[in-house]
Recover the amino acids of this structure.
């Protein structure tokens, strides 16, 4: 009989939710009570909404507990470990009985995330135990040729998961055909989209799958050196990658004559990004690795021809790399059985915003957006109305509720004006102002523009000024046409993806939520009640009890009224901070 | 645009003497290697908390890197700081998820409570307030990070309370030192 295991999820999300303290507590109890179980660590399970997560695996099966703070940890150890009575009401997943979160897990197909939450990311043995590095050994053992590897990836239909959607096998073929003796492989882990955290979770949860993918890619194209370009904002991911690379080197997966393949020498290192969104663009990323300002350059020549240090270079995103070992092992057909005609396999999404179950999900291509939000995500909290979903971050767009049956594949999503992007999915409800969202993204791209192309540098600034004006109640007739015109100019006259896609959030919100823009411009109203300058706070005389709380809390003393008398807000002096609204216990403050 | 960042400097001028020799080993490690400019700046910032003027000059002198290139890179990337920061850096996340969950209110409350603009450092040198792009804890939005500790599902008053508690602890710690 194997020992009972207690596994704590220690990804960034879990740690932020207090998993570190939970782990400490369990460890403390284990030693003080001399309890006989194996205490282990894993990373993100994907159920961020239930963090901290603790899994107990005993002889009867597996029990995943959610929301485990120190108090619950004591309860679980006491009841489950000591008395062998699982605490059923805290279980969010089990292979023994159904839980409320069943749909969240059952709708998913885990390929890229196959090991996340199941293994200790700091243990190469645990990765190997789940068929890790088997694909690499298979290539070496069976003498699979470079062309065959490329053919398999091509046949699988895998497309770049960083957002571009370019067929991975084709990219590899270009780099392979180049006769240069020196080639590079790069993993783009500069996940910069606000609202996206797929790559971070993958690197924290299963770094070896990315490393193995890169080694296979290096073999296929004939690369000698690899770079993982990772955001410095992800310290845990970097730490775990460092550990994983050392382990892989020790076991001979990196180095000389890898996997018994004579003449296949390859090694890799990590390069920390320094905080520039534009470095997600491949030519800017290369400039950054070379130690320069991360500014994109003209293509062609493409990196496959002249990339890092002028040598042929193949760049793929974290999620793309993580899929590779699975595809080699299970074959192209196994991967291509999922998805639609032109978009094969699965895609990882980071679900966040106004949604009940936020977290990381991996779904087959072809699923509808509505299913992701309602089946997996559990819908919108507090019975609010679902309004739109933002896909693709600052380069993407907002898809409105009535298009929620759009299926997830590159072409269908593009047809809505949004893009698949790297997989950030931010859900918005009736309390989200679409003009404000567009302004938010423009503010982001405007700050992140590298400044090389005039239209991107100045055009985004002008657009931001117009949007800010609209949200402040200074919008004018003709503003929307001006925004659309500027958008076209910026799209046409920018060198890289940042500028070419920067207007997307504005264009899609004008397309689908024009009435909201018009309400701001013509009626000087914000229907979602977000834009401060357009709000008026008044007191409902029917409901006001004269408790004086609002008057006391008002930072500018603009509320007058005696105790037990109806209060009044001086509209001239009101700064619309909303303090009275959040303090009133009688719902007597009205926002219009 | 990215170069606009350099004007964003709200730090009290209390420059301390800088001993540049502590980055000697760093310089030795990277000297002559290609692509070493960013790691050199990152390493210097790890030592000093920011990149002092003296460090720029010292690195340039020892490695032959152009000062103008170094300055160009340092002002391009958001990570690099050219002036000293507070003991605690309060990073308020302004990713999409945090934005729709009202991250602005957190920043506004902290601006009020700390009495510094966004990006500024308090007079006592304890706190630097920063707005940052996504911290990647979207499910806990709105989020702020102080040191290695992440605080989630915040409201304005809660964030102020957390900062005040740190200040009280610091004061107590200082008080004990005096005895």
């Amino acid at each position: 009989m194997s020992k009972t295991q207690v596994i704590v999820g220690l990804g960034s999300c879990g740690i932020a939710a207090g998993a570190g303290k939970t782990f400490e507590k369990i460890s403390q109890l284990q030693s003080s009570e001399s309890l006989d179980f194996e205490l282990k660590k894993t990373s993100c399970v994907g159920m961020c909404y239930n963090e901290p997560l603790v899994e107990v695996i005993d002889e009867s099966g597996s029990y995943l507990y959610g929301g485990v703070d120190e108090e619950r940890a004591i309860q679980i150890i006491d009841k489950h470990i000591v008395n062998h009575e699982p605490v059923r009401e805290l279980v969010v997943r089990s292979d023994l009985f159904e839980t409320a979160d069943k749909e969240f897990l059952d709708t998913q197909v885990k390929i890229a995330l196959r090991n996340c939450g199941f293994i200790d990311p700091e243990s190469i043995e645990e990765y190997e135990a789940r068929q890790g590095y088997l694909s690499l050994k298979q290539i070496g053992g069976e003498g699979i040729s470079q062309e065959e590897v490329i053919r398999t990836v091509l046949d699988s239909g895998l497309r770049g998961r960083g957002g571009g959607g370019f067929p991975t096998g084709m990219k590899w073929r270009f780099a392979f055909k180049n006769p240069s003796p020196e080639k590079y492989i790069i993993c783009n882990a500069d996940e910069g989209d606000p609202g996206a955290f797929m790559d971070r979770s993958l690197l924290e949860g299963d770094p070896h799958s990315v490393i193995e993918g890169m080694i296979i890619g290096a073999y296929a194209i004939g690369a000698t050196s690899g770079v993982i370009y990772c955001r410095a904002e992800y310290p845990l991911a970097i730490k775990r990658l460092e550990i994983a690379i050392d382990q892989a080197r020790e076991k001979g997966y990196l180095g000389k004559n890898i996997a018994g393949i004579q003449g296949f020498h390859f090694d890799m290192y990590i390069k920390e990004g320094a905080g520039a969104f534009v470095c997600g663009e491949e030519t800017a990323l290369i400039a950054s690795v070379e130690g320069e300002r991360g500014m994109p350059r003209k293509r062609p020549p493409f990196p496959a021809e002249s990339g890092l240090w002028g040598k042929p270079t193949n760049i793929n995103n974290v999620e793309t790399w993580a899929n590779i070992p699975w595809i080699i092992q299970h074959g192209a057909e196994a991967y291509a059985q999922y998805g639609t005609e032109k978009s094969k396999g699965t895609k990882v999404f980071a679900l966040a915003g106004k949604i009940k179950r936020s977290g990381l999900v991996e779904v087959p291509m072809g699923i509808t957006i509505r299913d992701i939000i309602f089946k997996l995500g559990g819908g919108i909290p507090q019975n609010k109305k679902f309004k739109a979903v933002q896909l693709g971050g600052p380069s993407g767009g907002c898809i409105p509720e009535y298009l929620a049956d759009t299926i997830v594949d590159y072409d269908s999503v593009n047809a809505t004006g949004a893009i698949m992007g790297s997989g950030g999915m931010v859900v918005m409800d009736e309390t989200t102002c679409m003009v404000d969202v567009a302004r938010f993204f423009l503010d982001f791209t405007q700050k992140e523009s590298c400044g090389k192309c005039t239209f991107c540098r100045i055009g985004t600034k002008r657009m931001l000024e117009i949007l800010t004006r609209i949200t402040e109640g200074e919008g004018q007739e003709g503003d929307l046409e001006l925004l659309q015109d500027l958008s076209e100019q910026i799209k046409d006259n920018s060198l890289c993806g940042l500028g070419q896609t920067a207007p997307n959030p504005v264009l899609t919100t004008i397309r689908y939520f024009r009435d909201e823009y018009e309400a701001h411009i013509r009626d000087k109203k914000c229907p979602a009640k977000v834009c401060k300058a357009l709000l008026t706070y008044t007191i409902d005389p029917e409901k006001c009890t004269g408790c004086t709380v609002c008057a006391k809390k008002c930072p500018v003393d603009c509320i007058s009224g005696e105790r037990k008398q109806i209060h009044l807000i001086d509209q001239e002096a009101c700064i619309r901070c909303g303090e009275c609204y959040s303090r009133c216990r009688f719902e007597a403050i009205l926002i219009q | 645009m990215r170069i606009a960042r350099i004007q964003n400097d709200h730090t009290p001028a209390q420059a301390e003497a800088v001993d540049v020799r502590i980055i000697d080993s760093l310089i030795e490690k990277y000297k002559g290697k290609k692509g070493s400019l960013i790691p050199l700046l990152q390493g210097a910032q790890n030592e000093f908390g920011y990149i002092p003027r003296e460090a720029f000059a010292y690195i340039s002198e020892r490695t032959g890197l152009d000062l103008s290139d170094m300055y160009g890179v340092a002002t391009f990337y958001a990570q690099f700081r050219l002036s000293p920061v507070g003991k605690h850096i309060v990073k308020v996340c302004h990713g999409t998820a945090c934005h729709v969950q009202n991250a602005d209110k957190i920043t506004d409350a902290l601006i009020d409570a700390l009495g510094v603009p966004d990006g500024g450092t308090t007079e006592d040198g304890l706190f630097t307030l920063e707005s940052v792009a996504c911290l990647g804890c979207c499910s806990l939005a709105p989020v702020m990070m102080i040191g290695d500790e992440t605080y989630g599902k915040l409201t304005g008053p809660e964030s102020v309370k957390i900062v005040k508690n740190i200040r009280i602890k610091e004061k107590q710690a200082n008080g004990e030192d005096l005895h």
Notes: Residues 6-13 of chain B have pLDDT under 50 and may be disordered.
